[in-house]
């Protein structure tokens, strides 16, 4: 999605110049890419896997005249498992080049790639190096909602009804959760677009294009949409599932209040997570409580829908299990401790009237397991 976005912007920038650009990504007809590369072009934009494929297998893809290599979102490229591909690409490219590396975080893996790609002593440029407050723009309104485990779904439904004529992004922690909630909300009258990492490239590209072109729309997504992507006119970001860390919080809320426009960010919390608000304040992020005058009584209706539909129930169980797995892996246990939440009540927020069979690890104490 980021490659497509950069390609579209680049195409506009070079429209009146004697330059050519092509894109190489999975999900696009490789023969068309082969032909474009054989003809020659000034700018090649691509993802690591497909670019490596062309470097190895596409004849007449000439790279001897390469002048500039740009690595964008380098930390994310490494996070999603492209370290080996990136190292191999660097070995194949001419050493006599300028290299620009962009990254939101500084990691040990990033340092390794830096040593490989930046041959001379690199010039390091830091933007807002230490102050989180500088990373949140003044025109972003930050809110939190405290909702009990069983009422989360009803609260989300009520908020989306309120913002039905706006452009909204809703973040979930897992792909299964995006699948279930998008299917459910589409069934009960919303028009939901979904985007997550397990979708094939064609579906992901279609979701990206459809959400971008709509003036009013709702996108259910994982953190695959949290960084780099620039959707226009997003009025509200809802974090239905908590972010893994403060940096991810910043990336998520950064999808709104862009280009000088106002935006809203709403963080869902359950009562046991309330202390997280104070933690965010220590990072110079001040959240106000978001008030809903009337919560729609939708929970019982959803319980019946899921119970009476095999397809929904199957996906609800998958979503619930993957949510628990994701939640139990969160590092900030002081605020997000899976042993403290009422998991049986949490089932209802997935449309499940009873607890599904789950294999619990040693993380669960005896009291918690007995209650379950």
UniProtKB/TrEMBL annotation:
Locations listed in the record: Nucleus, Nucleolus
Residue ranges occupied by any Helicase C-terminal domain in the UniProt entry: 139-303
Main location: nucleus
GO BP annotations, alphabetical order: rRNA processing
EC class (word): hydrolase
Domain Helicase ATP-binding residue range list: 1-124
Catalytic activity: ATP + H2O = ADP + phosphate + H(+)
EC number: 3.6.4.13
GO cellular component: cytosol; nucleolus
PROSITE patterns named in the record: HELICASE_ATP_BIND_1 (PS51192), HELICASE_CTER (PS51194)
InterPro entries for this protein: DEAD/DEAH_box_helicase_dom (IPR011545), DEAD_box_RNA_helicase (IPR050079), Helicase_ATP-bd (IPR014001), Helicase_C-like (IPR001650), P-loop_NTPase (IPR027417), SPB4-like_CTE (IPR025313)
Keywords assigned by UniProt, alphabetized: ATP-binding, Helicase, Hydrolase, Nucleotide-binding, Ribosome biogenesis, RNA-binding, rRNA processing
One term of GO molecular function: RNA helicase activity
Top-level taxon of origin: Eukaryota
PANTHER family from the UniProt entry: ATP-DEPENDENT RNA HELICASE DBPA, ATP-DEPENDENT RNA HELICASE RHLE-RELATED
Protein name: RNA helicase
Lineage: Eukaryota, Fungi, Fungi incertae sedis, Microsporidia, Dubosqiidae
């Amino acid at each position: 999605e980021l490659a497509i976005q950069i390609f579209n912007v680049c195409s506009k920038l070079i429209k009146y110049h004697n330059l050519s650009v092509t894109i190489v990504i999975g999900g696009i007809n490789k023969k068309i890419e082969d032909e474009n590369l054989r003809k020659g072009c000034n700018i090649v934009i691509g993802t690591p896997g497909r670019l490596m494929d062309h470097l190895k297998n596409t004849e007449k893809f000439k790279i001897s005249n390469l002048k500039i290599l740009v690595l964008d979102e380098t930390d994310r490229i490494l996070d999603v498992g492209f370290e080996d591909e990136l190292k191999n690409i660097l070995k194949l490219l001419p050493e006599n080049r300028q290299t620009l590396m962009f990254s939101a975080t500084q990691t040990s893996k990033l340092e390794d790639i830096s040593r490989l790609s930046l041959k001379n002593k690199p010039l390091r440029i830091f933007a807002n190096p230490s102050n989180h407050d500088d990373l949140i723009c003044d025109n972003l309104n930050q809110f939190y909602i405290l909702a009990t485990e069983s009422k989360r779904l009803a609260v989300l439904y009520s908020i989306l009804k309120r913002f039905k004529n706006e452009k909204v992004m809703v973040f979930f922690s897992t792909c299964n959760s995006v699948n279930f909630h998008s299917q459910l909300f589409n069934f009960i009258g919303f028009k939901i677009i979904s985007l997550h990492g397990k979708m094939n490239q064609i579906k992901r590209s279609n979701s990206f294009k459809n959400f971008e072109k709509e003036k009013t729309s709702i996108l259910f997504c994982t953190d695959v949409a949290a960084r780099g992507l620039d959707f226009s006119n997003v009025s509200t970001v809802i974090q239905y599932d908590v972010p893994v860390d403060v940096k991810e919080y910043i990336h998520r809320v950064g999808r709104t209040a862009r280009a000088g426009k106002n935006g809203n960010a709403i963080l869902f919390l359950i009562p046991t997570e309330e202390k997280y608000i104070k933690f965010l304040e220590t990072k110079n992020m001040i959240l106000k409580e978001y008030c809903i005058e009337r919560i729609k009584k939708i929970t019982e209706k959803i319980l019946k829908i899921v119970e009476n539909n095999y397809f929904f129930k199957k996906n609800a169980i998958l979503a619930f299990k993957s949510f628990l797995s994701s939640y139990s892996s969160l590092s900030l246990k002081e605020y997000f401790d899976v042993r403290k939440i009422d998991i049986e009540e949490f089932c209802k927020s997935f449309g499940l009237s009873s607890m599904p069979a789950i294999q619990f690890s040693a993380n669960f104490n005896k009291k918690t397991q007995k209650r379950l």
